[in-house]
Amino acid sequence: MRSLASRLLFTAFISAVVTLSANAVSAADDMTETARAALVAFTEAVLAGPGTLAPMLAPEYQIMRANGVGYDRDGYLDRGAGTVSARPDFSHEDLVVTATDDEVMVVRYFLRIDETIDGKPVKRRAPRLTVFRKIDAVWKVVAHSNFGATK
């Protein structure tokens, strides 16, 4: 009897672990797709210019570019946004997403794009870090770092 009870308990334990693991993988996949959609919208807004980009930026937004130039939200919209030109085809690769309570999402990734910043070409596959915060049910960009060295 004890052996049967032990086996049933073990089976229930394994079933719970498998279910929790499957749910965690599903949640991670969902978060990765959420991050990918937010990154696509952000990248397209950067390429479109300040008017399209402004609603996507949180009030505390900051950017740091690979060349050491940094801006706050207003500085970026006034002087930094619109200095990027790129072909419209791009992809986000090797996403690593962490999130807390569906309020903050940090995404580390590589952006594959042909772009120039302030007239200088940037490496085609450049590492990036973008932080989002949910404001009124919409993911806004809080911080962005571009680690892509210019050529």
> Helicity range of the residues?
25-40%
How many strands, which pairing sense, and closed or not: the largest β-sheet? 7 strands, mixed
Task: Output the CATH class name.
Answer: Alpha Beta
Q: Which shape, going by the Cα principal axes?
A: elongated
What's the structural domain tally?
1
What's the rounded overall pLDDT mean?
Answer: 82
Number of H/I helices: 3
Low-confidence stretches: 20-26
Q: Please tell me the CATH architecture by its name.
A: Roll
Provide keyphrases for this structure.
151 residues, Nuclear Transport Factor 2, Chain: A, seven-stranded mixed β-sheet, 7 strands, elongated
Question: Can you walk me through this structure?
Answer:
The protein is α+β, with helices and mostly antiparallel strands. The protein has one domain: Roll (Nuclear Transport Factor 2, Chain: A), CATH 3.10.450.50. The protein is built from 3 helices and 7 strands. It has helices at 2-48, 50-53, 73-80; strands at 57-64, 70-72, 84-100, 104-117, 120-122, 125-135, 138-146. A hairpin with a 3-residue loop joins strand 3 (84-100) and strand 4. The termini are far apart.
